[in-house]
What we know:
Radius of gyration: 26 Å
Strand content: under 5%
Number of strands: 0
Shape: flat
Mean pLDDT: 90
Order of helices and strands: HHHHH
Low-confidence stretches: none
Amino acid sequence: MNMTKVKRYVDLHARKTKLEAELASVKEKLSELEPFVLEQFEKAGIQNMKVGDWKPYVHSQIWASVDKSNPRAMEILKANGLADLVSETVNSQSLSAYVREQVRLYEDADSKNLEEVLKQALPDELLDVLKVSEKTSLRVVKA
């Protein structure tokens, strides 16, 4: 086994973990400062200013989402010319969790391949409409 590449992989993973933690800390500090800076811009009546090589500026954007508690929401959107925005969707994470659970119920110690297990775990009509794959990856935990 080439331990040089394994060690390199683990070293890079450790570096990535450290950088992600540092980034999370920076994002938190930015979130804490943003309301103060926005307030200062508003008080000064400005939209932007140059600070060294950077230029912070005020940006506003409108976002909309559907009130899913209204049972007529989709019907109302369609009636108002927004039918092209309405689609029936499936939550892929929930669907994947369901398939994993069904596979767990039918897996045995003989470790059959995924296709064989799926044929036992799911009805044929579901197998006809689902794409199921298995991804194998390398992960690292702190020892």
